[in-house]
Amino acid sequence: xxxxxxxxxxxxxxxxxxxxxxxxxxxxxxxxxxxxxxxxxxxxxxxxxxxxxxxxxxxxxxxxxxxxxxxxxxxxxxxxxxxxxxxxxxxx
Length: 92
Known about the structure:
Number of strands: 0
């Protein structure tokens, strides 16, 4: 804690209470932030191949292909050849 708050018990307790609230909110926000990051990574790899994220995901859903966004983003980032094979499988 900074400043005089460490010497004042009432203010210190209030700061700790707010810190707990912020920690709770940011744990929830982190999940959405990661999902947005995965979407951006997948979309970037798809755009390089001439496809769009929304059409790709809709096609995957229609064909009942169960790969989650996290795994797709990791594959797109680390192994582009495997991602291209997945893309050709989905688009066929």
